[in-house]
Design a protein that fits this description.
By secondary structure, the protein is of the alpha+beta class. Helices cover 62% and strands 14% of the residues.
Length: 238
């Protein structure tokens, strides 16, 4: 997309992945060479925030904001298991004596550091998803009460038919979006949690294997010699 076309989006509404309008385009940040580097979004509360270009999707007249939860969760679900497999392959190479212990330790430490960083990012995603799920639950509850009150007022004749239909459609659409968001966040949280749980189980399994190896090695050690002291006749003591 050309630079001139992107500037035409200034002032246009920005929606999230579920069609909810969350703000509008304020401006763009460009590098000295003229490449689009970031976009300034004015959210519903009037706050301007600088977002990376990767966070937005421009499709015709539609501008969609991709949240950190959505943009990072997929990558983390791929990267964390990949680092596990690489570390396990490294262990196998050490056992087969294809690499030295020094090389193993250096690369193992590198994988461990990367994995720790990815796990911290994954936990942040889980926490953010949990907050969004609770927000969606509150919104669903509020919308349900709003619909119930609308039905009551319509039933007793306080709301005319046309107003009732328009309000009902609006509330139902909002309820559908909130439910869809909640389901999506729950799925994302479940996937990330499963990845983190798999890591904990994998670490536990490695600890068990190590303990078994130590135990087996101990069982293979020769029995300590039995020393028998014989008391000679006529002597006192051992």
């Amino acid at each position: 997309m050309s630079n001139s076309n992107l500037f035409l989006y200034i002032g246009k509404p920005v929606k999230n992945e579920y069609g909810r309008i969350i703000g509008k385009i304020g401006s763009f940040a460009l590098t000295p060479s003229g490449k689009f580097d970031a976009v300034y979004v004015e959210f519903g509360d009037g706050q301007f925030t600088k977002q990376p270009m990767e966070s937005l999707r421009f499709n015709g007249a539609e501008i969609t904001f991709i949240t950190k939860i959505k943009s990072q969760s997929g990558a983390l679900c791929d990267q964390i298991p990949l680092i596990w497999r690489k570390d396990q392959a490294l262990r196998d190479l050490l056992e087969k004596k294809k690499i030295t212990p020094e090389v193993f330790q250096d690369m193992h430490n590198s994988f461990t550091n990367v994995l720790s960083s990815l796990k911290r990012d994954a936990q942040e995603i889980v926490n953010d998803a949990t907050e969004e799920i609770e927000r969606c639950k509150d919104e669903i509850t509020s919308l349900s009460y709003a619909i119930a009150n609308l039905e009551i007022e319509h039933e007793i004749g306080k709301v005319d038919e046309e107003s009732y239909k328009n309000a009902f459609v609006t509330l139902q659409e909002a309820l559908r979006r909130a439910t869809s968001e909640k389901t999506d966040y729950e799925l994302t949280k479940s996937k990330i949690s499963s990845v983190l749980l798999g890591d904990n189980q994998d670490a536990l399994q490695r600890s068990k294997v190590y303990a078994e190896q130590v135990n087996n090695a101990a069982q293979k050690l020769p029995e300590p010699p039995v020393v028998v002291y014989v008391k000679e006749p006529g002597k006192v003591g051992i």
